[in-house]
Design brief:
single chain, 368 residues, Rossmann fold, Rna Polymerase Sigma Factor, Chain: A, 2 domains, 11 helices, 40% helix, 15% strand, globular
Length: 368
């Protein structure tokens, strides 16, 4: 009984502190008009994909805050790249629960000190994607292609030859593992949030497979050459993603009745269908098909702060995979955030107040 009381008090205190930090940061972010990113596009000429396909021009859209700083040898010392998840874009990191916590003066990624880079990855945001006109004839990109395009954007587009940090959420979390193995000396530290460093299998693969088949089996998809969006396909995708991204404790609090739950679900599906393209979605989910960093985790030599939340449907903690695999990373640490009304299921990765203490620790331990 005493243990239960202590845990309840600690949980309550954490909730109060997180809420206070979030409110303060949101107010500061809203008042900081000077924190406006610069936007641009880098065009990669004759970009070749692992599939053997190519594009004469691949557009990589990006936003940046701050300016690069170089040491005496010309190496950039303050660049931070933040990588978004499936169907997202760099703009998601402008939300107050992320930007307000991290970018403001005196915060961990204060943009007066750091050069923060937010790319839209292949197939997402304002970068090249199937819905631009090629539809299902767009090259079948994968995560290796996406990381290669990010690397080219940095070196050739932005003149960045080194990163202080790569922070990635969900798909971006998986990209962080690929970065650590493909370009092990390019960054000082990695912070993967909300993924696992193994091949996508089990339930995670199953819901992805169901989403893709839901699109392909919709007669209105027409092998990707539709002129109007296949609504049933997008509704199926919305259903699966809604469940996969859910937060049980938070949802029960916010939707305590049948009618409230139904209303929230219907509103989500309506927004999702209006805001997504079926081919873009199919390609984005299919890009994970050959992801499997587990074969080369020993190649990662920089400090890694790997963070998941216990209420993540997509990466359930009971699998024990994160704890097992992090042992193979020389300077790796895994943190599992307990489920609470402050966590957001899979989406906890974007609520920085919940995990900023671990980012602070990573920045301190990875200083040169």
């Amino acid at each position: 009984m005493k243990i239960t009381k202590r845990i309840s008090k600690a949980t309550l205190l954490t909730a109060i502190l997180v809420s206070a930090v979030l409110l303060r940061a949101q107010a500061g972010w809203a008042a900081s008009a000077e924190l406006t990113p610069k936007e641009g596009d880098y065009i990669s000429k004759d970009f070749h994909f692992k599939s053997g396909e190519s594009l004469p021009e691949l557009r990589m859209h990006y936003m940046t805050f701050g300016s690069p700083v170089r040491d005496a040898n010309g190496q950039v010392t303050n660049a931070v790249m933040i990588l978004h998840g499936t169907t997202g874009s760099g703009s998601q990191f402008l939300a107050p629960q992320f930007a307000g916590i991290l970018y403001s003066p005196g915060q961990l990624l204060d943009v007066s000190r750091y050069y923060v880079i937010l790319p839209d990855n292949i197939g997402h945001g304002e970068s090249s994607k199937p819905s631009d006109g090629m539809h299902a004839h767009f090259p079948q990109y994968d995560y290796d292609d996406m990381v290669a395009a990010q690397h080219e954007l940095l070196e050739k587009g932005l003149g960045v030859n080194h990163l202080r940090l790569i922070l990635g959420t969900s798909m971006g979390c998986m990209h962080a593992w690929v970065w650590g193995e493909t370009y092990p000396d390019f960054m000082d530290a990695l912070m993967p949030l909300a993924c696992l460093p193994v091949q996508i299998a089990g339930r995670n693969r199953t819901w992805r497979k169901a989403l893709m088949e839901g699109i392909r089996n919709d007669p209105d998809w027409k092998n990707g050459d539709y002129t109007t969006q296949p609504r049933a396909a997008l509704e199926t995708a919305a259903d699966l993603l809604y469940i996969a991204s859910g937060a049980p404790l938070l949802w029960q609090k916010e939707f305590p009745t049948r009618d409230a739950a139904d209303s929230a679900y219907e509103a989500y599906v309506k927004r999702f269908v209006a805001g997504h393209d079926a081919n873009d979605l199919l390609y984005a989910v299919n890009a994970s098909r050959n992801y499997d960093p587990s074969q080369q985790l020993e190649k990662i030599t920089v400090p890694v702060m790997f963070v998941n939340s216990a209420d993540d449907f997509i990466n359930p903690p009971e699998l024990g995979i994160a704890e097992r695999e992090i042992k193979r990373v020389k300077h790796g640490r895994f943190v599992l955030i307990p489920a609470s009304e402050q966590t957001r299921g899979h989406g906890t990765h974007t609520w920085a107040a919940v995990w900023q203490q671990y980012l602070k620790e990573l920045l301190q331990t990875s200083q040169r």
